[in-house]
Amino acid sequence: MMFSFLTNPLFPIALLFVLFFLDVPIALSLIGSALYYFTFINTAIPMRMVIQQFVTAVESFPYLAVPFFIMLGSVMNYSGISEKLMDMAEVLAGHLKGGLAQVNCLLSALMGGISGSANADAAMESKILVPEMLKKGLPLDFSAAVTAASSAVSPVIPPGNNLILYALIANISVGDMFLAGYTPGILMTIALMFTVYLISLKKGYAPTRAHRASGKEIGHQFIKSIWALVIPFVIILGMRMGVCTPTEAGGVAVLFALIVGLTVYKKLRWKHLPNILKETVISTGSVMLIIASAKVFGYYMNCERIPQIVTQALIHMTNSKYILLLVINIMLLVICMFIEGGAALVILAPLLVPAVCSFGIDPLHFGVIMIVNIMIGGLTPPFGSMMFTVCSIVGCKFQDFVKQVWPFIIALLLVLVVVTLSENVALAIPKLFGYIPNHHFMG
Amino acid sequence: MVTVLIVIMNVFTRYCLHFTFFWTEEISVGCFVWTIFLGSAGAFKQKKLMGVDILMQVSKGLGRKIFALVNSVVISLITIWMCITSFNYVKTSTKITAALEISYQFITASIVVAFVLMSFYSLFPVYKSIRAFFKETDKEVE
Question: Which of A51, A277, A286 lies closest to B5 in CB terms?
Answer without folding.
Answer: A277
